[in-house]
């Protein structure tokens, strides 16, 4: 009875939102994670200032709106808990809102109601709860005791108070680098020799203080070259002179100095990407992989802004997984080999030659947006380590990993049709709050390894941020980032839609001296780590779907690799405006700004004084204002309210029922303006019907969003094509975004001219 009473008290202590999320997802939302206190809240505030009544109410539900429903192992159990009176009243309120939304959608008629109905069906809340409380509590106790008997982690269950992450301490000794030795058949990484082994050549180079001072003070020199597949490459460095990157058409795997098992497994794992054209030339790499891996293997920093989830995303993932795993295997093999040498050495022998470690063990940090990405990375690692079907590697906690990072096969995707790129990005488990340590030792892999016993850490920006913490917090830790040798940031553009502050916070805390020794043997630590020069040896691999100033800033200001940097800088020739299929006049209106910081206020004043007055007339109804920044959206919304304009608004925090009402009001002309945020479009990709006039308050972050929004005008064919308009606001600081929309040639002309530019697209231009 005591346990049963404690369970009821715990349920009563939860707020309405917590109870709702508990019923739907089987666990507490990370927003209320006790492990990080109230930190997640402040963390989210960094990206989005919550203002006014609607956004305040709906901000706490932002994550549940933008994530696919995940069904955990506790879902069925928790679904049997009886609904409390408070939550029942909330359910009734939500149901009434949903009914109202359905009624409003029914009035829209035809295709609009069908589309929204499918969206409602695909994302419907599941609140059906039986009424047997005592029986369900007994089941909960049985499951809890069973899990504890099996040795499984129960700390992530919301019933257990403080939420702690599961870490595998059972296999600590088996994966310890200090107590293991090199197996003969695993190969010795020292056999390659320093001159030919890129790993040893990079890590064993001893920089001088003059060189460090030079890199800290002098600007980088840059030069350009052309690659057959990558295109225009920009090489920049302070110390190294530019060397032409040779990506030979024929690459022998043995010439790449891969660790022994990878030489035989890589061609098998990568054959799915090889076309019939590629096979006669190269039996192991695609043309893109060949040139990318050539740069990776030279240990230069790399920025590739043309990653596409539909076309080359998996190719790139396999390439950087090969490089990361090759680095870890060589580093561990060096340590294990030196362990044997130290064991066999004569007493009194100087052991200073065996400096082969960092201040902490983690060597590779991989930042990815969703759990599905982490799942695919681990699967690639396993495939690369398994030499053949007979020699399976031992993967600890594999079943648990699949359960937490995989998706439910019985879960049906929403019936709403969405673009192919959306389906590719949001495939599988799209939870964005996770972190996991991976330890690799010869023929075994350990998932959920403690960070200080891990070789590779895979995490999302939010997952790593909640561990790093903020200044002044008692429970924070970033020592495990002190000796990171390879940093991989994949799909960086998605973090602009999540919270870019998390990435910046990570970059400020990586490669700092640890506050604790963590049991390290200082006689084995490299001098570069003791001198706090780790950041000058760290290789950063940055992959994105676009070139964006914030991403460029991270690559230029937070990467200090002494070998230099390589960035792919191709310019778009046509732009996404060529994909607009409706006949639509485009007016690009240039606003003047003295600096980047003054653009925000200058754009708002330009919109209020010169653009908005032209659309106040009732004739200019059905006007959608596309706003990329949430800050600008809040500012415009407050101004529209102050001016008492007839408008409605949709943002990423708007509830589903409110979205339906806003779409209905806008379609029927009851509201003249619709404020529409880019982040909502990124996560939902709904087709907004009834648009006659478009205003791009700022150019979209993703260039293909421009053509998508413009093509929404064809969704309602009511014979008013001639009245369609499209107005775009831009400044000289929007050169990259402008080029992605109209092409490089038009961009050069528009930036030189201070006049408004009128373009008429017929669907073929």
Automatic annotation (TrEMBL):
GO BP field: maturation of SSU-rRNA from tricistronic rRNA transcript (SSU-rRNA, 5.8S rRNA, LSU-rRNA)
Name of encoding gene: Diexf
Organism domain of life: Eukaryota
The protein, known as: U3 small nucleolar RNA-associated protein 25 homolog
SUPFAM superfamilies given in the database record: P-loop containing nucleoside triphosphate hydrolases (SSF52540)
GO molecular function, one term: rRNA binding
Region (Disordered): 52-138, 337-357
Family under the similarity heading: Belongs to the UTP25 family.
Sorted UniProt keywords: Developmental protein, Nucleus, Phosphoprotein
Self-association and partners: Interacts with CAPN3; the interaction is required for CAPN3 translocation to the nucleolus.
Species of origin: Leptocoma aspasia
